[in-house]
TrEMBL record:
CDD domains: NAT_SF. Keywords: Acyltransferase, Transferase. The lineage of its organism: Bacteria, Candidatus Roizmaniibacteriota. Gene3D superfamilies: 3.40.630.30. GO terms for molecular function: acyltransferase activity, transferring groups other than amino-acyl groups. Residues 2-153 form the N-acetyltransferase domain. It comes from Candidatus Roizmanbacteria bacterium CG22_combo_CG10-13_8_21_14_all_33_16. This is N-acetyltransferase domain-containing protein.
Amino acid sequence: MINIRKAKKDKVEDLQELNNEVIIDNQKYDFDLDLGWAKSNQGNKYFIKLLNDPKICCLIAETNKIKVGYIVAAPKILAYRKSRLIEITNMGVRAKYRSMGIGTMLINECLKWAKLQGFQKAYVNSYLDNQMAIKFYKRSGFSEIDVSLEKNL
């Protein structure tokens, strides 16, 4: 059975470990990723800050005390938009546990929390080549609204 719960403030290493797996998995889409970032001091400080901010949703999925996924969402301020936006900034499910509905459970709990906080729209981005993630987000009700571009200097 999968349990979705709020991430514990004193267990920052849970988020670091799960995020580390996401970064390693995403290197096939972005060769510029710092593969040691999640477990670095900088990563540690980043996740501690998230865990201590009441405006941020940080959830963990676990089964039999094994952490199998997580989601982080934070307010996204776009002054030119009328709606209050929440952005899913981090999300991942361990490869062994994918396609079991865990991502859907995480996103549903997160969006339920966001709605209770008064957010009106949710925003997420994905690597263009990560078609599995894009299909997942579309199945979850997200639609394409913009394109991000990058250039090496």
